[in-house]
Amino acid sequence: MSTRTLDSVRPGEELPPLDVPVTAAIIVGGAVASNDFTPVHHDRSAAQEQGLPDVFMNILTTNGYVGRYVTDWAGPDAQVKGVQLKLGGPNMPGDTLKIRGKVLAVDDGLAIVEVAGTNSWGNHVTARVKLALPGAA
User: What is the pTM of this model?
Assistant: First the structure.
């Protein structure tokens, strides 16, 4: 894995795509790992009572995928300095979360990356991530 440097990143640069097949195990595992025991994240009947066909991913699991996406691209020396995240439609088993991103700006010593994750429902997540990267290569 290579490390991005601040001087090698350019606004408009696109990050490589990441497609995540969504399974019930990922949804339930993410909820349990983040201590989110809300029934709609692990109990299909509870989700159906709320009008959805199945369990759905919690925001903390989605945030984890956004973080993984940008840090896999940026490398092990990157530091996440801030995340602004907004959820859209649900992420459920049998779907694919398609994560895409691009560098919006390099400003004040930080790279700002815009991330979008879509699935068959449309937009699942939009985010802006601020990354501190090492200086010159």
Answer: 0.93
- Three-class DSSP category at 39: helix
Ramachandran angles phi, psi of 34, nearest 5°: -100, 15
What are the structural domains, with CATH classification, of the chain?
6-132 (3.10.129.10)
pLDDT bucket at 136, cuts 50 / 70 / 90: low
Neighbour-count burial for 58-83, b at 16+ CB within 10 Å, e otherwise: beebbbebbbebbbebbeeebeeeeb
H helix intervals, 5-110 = 24-33, 44-49, 59-74
pLDDT at 120: 96
In degrees to the nearest 10, what's the CA dihedral of 117, 119, 125, 126? 50
Q: Taking 90 as the threshold, does the pLDDT of residue 3 lie above it?
A: no
Q: Which amino acid is at 111?
A: A
